[in-house]
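Input/output pair, single chain:
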Amino acid sequence: MSTKRLTLNVKQPTRLAQEWVKQGSVARASESASRAEIYSARLTLDITADLRRRIKLAALSGGTTVADLLRELLEREFASYSDREP
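Output:
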């Protein structure tokens, strides 16, 4: 049995590539921070696999995310409660 060594020639990323990657990280971080300021509560619920599939299909066909679709749905459903005292 012979032992062969494989040598990989890995190029170092260029400065331009590194800046591009950092730029994306900063944009995601600032987007996450702004979302955290707006949406400060997390809701977890159990649903069936079929309902999850239907929700994902509805979001996809509407060109939105599942989270945004559900936020809009909940806002519409509970709009009449927004002017009430907790």
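Residues 13-41 form one domain. The chain has three helices and no strands.
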